[in-house]
Each structure stands twice: as C-alpha cells, then as structure tokens.
Amino acid sequence: MDVTPAPESPPEPTGAPLPEPRRLGVLSRLAPEPMKVVLNWGRRYSLWVFNFGLACCAIEFIAASMARHDFMRLGVIPFAPGPRQADLMVVSGTVTDKMAPAVKRLYEQMPEPKYVISFGACSNCGGPYWDSYSVTKGVDQIIPVDVYVPGCPPRPEALLQGILKLQEKIARESLGERYAQQGARTPVDALRSGLVAAPPTPGEGGTP
After folding, report:
1. Least enclosed by CB within 10 Å: which of 74, 90, 97, 184?
2. Contact indicator for 46, 55 with CB cutoff of 8 Å
3. DSSP code for 32
4. Contact 48, 83 (CB under 8 A)
5. Whose CA is closest to 126, among 193, 61, 54?
C-alpha cells in the first residue's frame, strides 16, 4: 500500500520576527529612500512620449527627435504607440476649443504617473491667437501641466531644456504625495464633446 508522506511543517522562527515587506503606491511614503531614488531614476530616463502636434511647434518637436539634437540620448523615447503606452504628453501647437475634449480624453487614457510639457506660446496661453473665439487660452485650462516651454515656435534646444527640467522634477518626486492628489476620476460624460454627434444606430431613426 502506497503511503504519501505528510508535508513537512515549516521550521519554527528563531529570533526577532521579520518586518513586513514595504509596499509602493499609496504607501510609498513608507518606502526606504534608496528605493525611491532607484524608482525615480528609472522613471526619469525611460519617458515614452506621446506627441500631440497641433501646429508649427510640432515640426520643432520632430527636429528635436532627429539626429542633430537626438533627445533619445536623454532617455526620451519618441512616438509611443498610443496614450496607454505613454508617460509624457507634449502638446505642441494651438489648442482650439474643438480639439480640447480630445486632448483631455487622451490624457485620461495615459497611465499614472504621467507628465505634460506645454511646448510653445500657443499651447501655453493661446499665443498670437489668444483673443480668438475658438482658441483655448492654454492647455492648462483642461489638463495639468508640469513644464512650460516658451517660444513661437521654440527651438529644439528649448525642448531639450524642458525635458531636463521635467527629469529634475521627477527625481525629487514622491509618488505617495502624487497619488494622494488624484482624487475622484473624471466621469466619462465630462470627456465627451458635444460638437460631434454620434451616428444614429439602425432601428433608432437611422438608416437600416
């Protein structure tokens, strides 16, 4: 007759009990300081960029990503597949009231922690079109901005300086404080634009 041996019981702990493992996220303020330094170091040098090019400043962004300036040497990876794979949104160009809901919707799709660079005078405050009836007076009216890069349009070197400033901010960051400020998520209805109506569905007054 086969006899299955009973599982061995774990050895009795000796000495002082082990401390509970430290967890990150909301409780990251309890994480040891070296761990914060390592996490922030990895975060600042692996920024996947989602370029929201809306006008001529987008050409300067492209120039900054080419071989002459090459912001990949700073740890910035251009042209993320989409907002859900991006860490950094660069809004470059004139934000109109019609485009504002799309900017906000795509920002909400980015995972935390996420950052925004406002690139150029139009994105900062409306630029030369600030008094237009259809222009948003700065992208910070709809989403939080971490770094402002002035200019009309700014040179690629200005974007490189803005990236360095953002990396300095990330190096000093405490994720516990950042996540504590999230609060309630924006409802989906608030992200939908009333300017474009959805097409009618078959059987509800539309074409079958």
Report:
1. 184
2. no
3. -
4. no
5. 54
- β-partners of residue 50 are 89
Q: Which residues 6+ apart lie within 8 Å of 115 measured at CB?
A: 47, 87, 88, 89, 146, 147, 166, 170
Q: Which amino acid is at 97?
A: D
In the sheet with 115-119, reading across from the earlier edge strand, the strands are: 76-77, 47-53, 88-92, 115-119, 147-149
Task: State the residue for tokens 């059987």.
Answer: 203
Annotated binding site: 56-57, 122, 152
Q: Phi and psi dihedrals of 31, rounded to 5? A: -70, 145
| Cα-Cα end-to-end distance for the chain | 72
Q: Does a cis peptide bond (omega within 30 degrees of 0) precede residue 13?
A: no
Annotated binding site for [4Fe-4S] cluster: 56-57, 122, 152
pLDDT tens, residue order, the chain (208 aa): 555 555 555 555 555 554 554 444 545 555 556 667 777 776 777 788 888 888 888 888 888 888 787 777 887 877 778 888 888 899 988 888 888 888 899 898 888 888 899 998 888 888 888 888 888 888 988 888 989 998 888 888 888 888 888 888 888 776 666 655 555 455 555 555 554 555 676 765 555 5
pTM comes to 0.66
- Please tell me the distance from the alpha carbon of residue 51 to that of residue 17, in angstroms, as a whole number: 50
Beta-bridged to residue 96, according to DSSP, are 135
